[in-house]
Every structure is written in structure tokens, then in C-alpha cells.
Automatic annotation (TrEMBL):
Transmembrane segments: none annotated. It comes from Dorea formicigenerans. InterPro entries: Aminoglycoside_PTrfase, Kinase-like_dom_sf, Pseudomonas-type_ThrB. It comes from the Bacteria. Signal peptide: none annotated. Keywords: Transferase. SUPFAM superfamilies: Protein kinase-like (PK-like) (SSF56112). This is Aminoglycoside phosphotransferase family protein. Coiled coil: none annotated.
Length: 370
């Protein structure tokens, strides 16, 4: 850690509404975007209190003030809903610790933005599914997120990353990347390029349905991976959805779909041996059951019918993004070997192809729980 970072962190710590004496300050988690620290305070006659302190990445999130307005609005709303249901608002949603001036963030003298949350104790997050019930618990939690926020006015939220899941716009951007071919790589990936072009209907599907008013705009999480769920250490039950940086207006089917893309694949995201990659119908069934149960009747019939398409669109979009980045010289996604993004792209396209083979089965699974 550089002296500048130490200075920034010390300044930030001094400007939040903390109580007690700081006794420990350590880096925390394995996130790739924000810088995260776990602070431990000793509070007189009250014991130990832990909090999370984060420096927000303003290169990824261009307007941290709007981002924190989203988070404060959503978490305050969730807190009220959880209290009404008799739940524990200190564990079932993130709780923002305000800065000394009352704002939900602090801007330091270097121009960087910081925020702080109460640490959720006796709970863990997992990077990989260790047992099927964890995937079901994640589905319940993300479904319940939709349930609790069903009446929240989604159009009042800011877009923290513009066009994040605008698959149609990403398709047009892809075509431009092919045309410009700035790294002269297009000739070596003709098969993959053709796969994208052959799926233009998938890229445009949800934009067209939204334009016709067939699917509603909702508050969505937009990063529905297992590691964004806190699971209680004693009960094994999911208790809280975390990492709300990408909470913004979106489609519930996309939240469902991204979770399937990531969690129901039998192979790693960058698996070179594509024979190992398929969409597990057992895991698809498990997540579908949990998600629909968690939503508790708040999804429309049309949204539920479109859940398989959500899985297909999000997987296709991700593969297309990996291929676009490969064509442009690997500038967005971090790579650890040559053609890493190409390997990632191919796994996603293999999943799309596998979903197409199992399309009828996926729809039958959804019908079971509608």
C-alpha cells in the first residue's frame, strides 16, 4: 500500500460517523473493482463493532454520487419492508454509515469517493457453488430482492453504467468492432463472428418486447452471482443481497439469466475443453424454483415465460462482449494468457448452443413452477 493510499484511507476514516477506538484495519475480500477494507472498532461497554470501508472506482462508476443515491434509496426502502415483515434489517440489507456531513459518501482531498457499511457478522459469501442448496438459496434471495422492490419506482434510479444490458446496442458496437478490426484478428475468428451475426434476433429480443410494452422495467441487481449473496453460517440460509453498485432500472429476466449463465454452467468461464461445458438442467431447475418462489407472485406471466430467453440473452451478450474485447485488443476484461477472451467467448457460445438444444426442456421446467 502506497503512502498516498494510507493518507487517503486515514482521511476517510476520520470523516465517517464511527464510534469507539479503531483496533484493526485490513484489506478485505477479492473484488476487482473497489478497494475494500474491514475496520474493527472497540466500543466502550458495547464490545467489538466491524464495518466495511470502500474506495469506489470512479473509472468504472463515473458518477459515485448518483450511485450512492441509488444505494441509499434502495436500502432505506428495503429496511422499511424488512421491518414490516418482522425481519432483521441489520442483517437482511446493507446499512450505509453516513459521513460526518450526513452524506452517504465522503470525497477526500484527492478527489476520490469513499463509502462505508455495517459489516454483516456470522455470514459468508461463496465464489463457487459448494453444494446445490447454495444455488437455490441464491435464487431465493435474488427472487426476494425482486419481490421486496416490486413497487419501487425503477425510473427514479440512475443508470450507474450506461447501457449495461442493452444487448441490441452491444450488437451494433460488435459489428463496428468487426468492421474496424483494429488488431487484424477478425480473419481468425470468422466462425465466432458468424455465430453472433446469426443471433441478431436474440440481441434485439428484449428491446423489441420492451418497446411493445410486454415486459416491465424493474429495479434490478445486474450482477447476480453467488458471491453477491450473504449466507448465514449457522442456518445455511441466504440472508442478504450485497454489492449494489449496479442496481438500476432493468429487466428481471436479465437478473435471472445472468445467474444461470454463471451458476448453471458445468465448466469454468474460460474452459478450453468445450466438451466439459453445458447448461445443467438440474441446476437450471433448482434456480428457477428458488427464483420464482422468492419473487412470490410479483413476476408477470410473460416474464416467467421469458426466463429461458433471459438465460440465453445474457449468455449470448456476455460471449459477444468477450469477442468484442478480443477484436479490440483485450482492453476491458483482464486477461491472463493469449486468447483468454476468445476462450471465454467460446464457452458462452457453447452454453447458448446447449440451451438451444434443451430449449423445450427449459420451458417445461419453468411451467412446473408458474
Amino acid at each position: 500500500m502506497t503512502q498516498v493510499v494510507r493518507t487517503q484511507k486515514a482521511e476517510a476514516i476520520a470523516h465517517f460517523q464511527y464510534e469507539g477506538r479503531l483496533i484493526q484495519d485490513v484489506p478485505f475480500g477479492n473484488g476487482h473493482i473497489n478497494d475494500t477494507y474491514l475496520l474493527t472498532f472497540e466500543v466502550k461497554r458495547m464490545g467489538i463493532l466491524k464495518v466495511i470501508l470502500q474506495k469506489m472506482n470512479k473509472n468504472v462508476f463515473k458518477n459515485p454520487v448518483e450511485l450512492m443515491e441509488n444505494i441509499l434509496g434502495v436500502t432505506s426502502y428495503l429496511r422499511e419492508k424488512i421491518i414490516k415483515k418482522g425481519g432483521d434489517p441489520d442483517r437482511e440489507t446493507l446499512n450505509v454509515i453516513p459521513a460526518l456531513d450526513g452524506k452517504p459518501y465522503y470525497q477526500d482531498s484527492f478527489g476520490d469517493y469513499w463509502r462505508s457499511y455495517i459489516f454483516i457478522t456470522d455470514a459468508s459469501s461463496y465464489d463457487q457453488v459448494e453444494n446445490p442448496d447454495q444455488f437455490y438459496q441464491a435464487a431465493m434471495a435474488f427472487g426476494n430482492f425482486q419481490n421486496l422492490l416490486a413497487d419501487y419506482p425503477a425510473d427514479t434510479l440512475f443508470e450507474t453504467i450506461e447501457g449495461f444490458h442493452d444487448t441490441k446496442a452491444r450488437f451494433e458496437f460488435f459489428k463496428r468492432a468487426v468492421e474496424t478490426d483494429i488488431k487484424s484478428r477478425a480473419a481468425g475468428v470468422k466462425k465466432e463472428i458468424q455465430f453472433v451475426l446469426d443471433h441478431e434476433d436474440v440481441a434485439c429480443c428484449f428491446s423489441n418486447l420492451q418497446a411493445k410494452g410486454e415486459i416491465p422495467l424493474r429495479v434490478t441487481h445486474n450482477d447476480t452471482k453467488l458471491n453477491n449473496i450473504m449466507i448465514d453460517n449457522k442456518t445455511g440460509k441466504a440472508i442478504c443481497v450485497i454489492d449494489l453498485d449496479t442496481v438500476m432500472p432493468g429487466l428481471a429476466v436479465n437478473d435471472f439469466g445472468d445467474a444461470i449463465r454463471f451458476g448453471a454452467s458445468t465448466g469454468a468461464e474460460d474452459e478450453k475443453d468445450l466438451s466439459k461445458v453445458e447448461c445443467s438442467m438440474e441446476l437450471f431447475d433448482l434456480f428457477t424454483k428458488g427464483f420464482i418462489e422468492g419473487c412470490n407472485g410479483k413476476l408477470t406471466k410473460r416474464e416467467m415465460e421469458l426466463l429461458p430467453m433471459g438465460a440465453k440473452v445474457m449468455t449470448f451478450e456476455c460471449g459477444m462482449r468477450f469477442l468484442t474485447d478480443y477484436l479490440q485488443g483485450d482492453t476491458y476484461f483482464k486477461i491472463h494468457r493469449e486468447e483468454h477472451n476468445l476462450d471465454r467467448c467460446r464457452t458462452q457460445f457453447k452454453l447458448v448452443s446447449d440451451m438451444e438444444k434443451k430449449w423445450g426442456q427449459m420451458h417445461e421446467i419453468v411451467k412446473k413452477y408458474m
